[in-house]
């Protein structure tokens, strides 16, 4: 058996099993909805969970920060999506993450910003839509008012300030295309 095969098939750890138990006993009652087979493992912060919906087969790993704050806030996560360690999703305006997505460790997605005069005040920056089958690389940032199209890839440490077309690959600060959009995925 190759090393990579052993790593990907490692048995679930104690944290995973505790997360599965907490998801079924505690979180399922508190969240707007949590789909079958979804697991939330040792989150750092959970706020406004009554406005957070998680699809089937979703994995939310340790250190996640999921927050829906304010009257228009909501977070919706599609089926079979993976949120790595220390992923931060913060909503004042709605945030929608599609199905079959991967948000690598340390990804930051926020439809919020702090005020310029009063730094303790926050406000919405526009809804965020992340399509199906999107990959957000380690420590990528997606800011408010942005749509990331189906099948797009955002490179590690990129800062997305504008829409990303379906199938497009973007990198850098601010994120710019390095592989053009896939015409097959354009609506």
TrEMBL record:
Pfam families: Hexapep (PF00132), Hexapep_2 (PF14602)
Keywords: Repeat, Transferase
GO molecular function, one term: transferase activity
Residue intervals passing through the bilayer: none
Entry-linked PANTHER family: LIPOPOLYSACCHARIDE BIOSYNTHESIS O-ACETYL TRANSFERASE WBBJ-RELATED, SIALIC ACID SYNTHASE-RELATED
Name assigned to this protein: Acetyltransferase-like isoleucine patch superfamily enzyme
Organism encoding this protein: Knoellia remsis
């Amino acid at each position: 058996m190759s090393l990579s095969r052993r790593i990907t098939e490692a048995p679930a750890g104690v944290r995973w099993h505790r997360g599965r138990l907490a998801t079924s006993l505690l979180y399922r009652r508190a969240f707007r909805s949590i789909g079958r087979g979804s697991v939330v493992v040792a989150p750092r912060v959970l706020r406004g969970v009554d406005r957070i919906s998680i699809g089937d087969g979703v994995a939310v790993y340790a250190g996640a920060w999921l927050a829906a704050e304010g009257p228009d806030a909501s977070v919706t996560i599609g089926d079979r999506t993976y949120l790595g360690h220390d992923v931060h999703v913060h909503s004042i305006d709605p945030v929608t993450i599609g199905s079959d997505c991967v948000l690598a460790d340390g990804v930051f997605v926020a439809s919020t910003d702090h005020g310029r005069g009063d730094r303790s005040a926050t406000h919405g920056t526009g809804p965020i839509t992340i399509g199906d089958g999107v990959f957000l690389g380690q420590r990528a940032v997606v800011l408010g008012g942005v749509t990331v199209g189906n099948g797009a890839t955002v490179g590690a440490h990129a800062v997305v300030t504008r829409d990303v077309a379906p199938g497009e690959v973007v990198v850098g600060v601010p994120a710019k295309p390095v592989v053009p959009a896939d015409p097959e995925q354009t609506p």
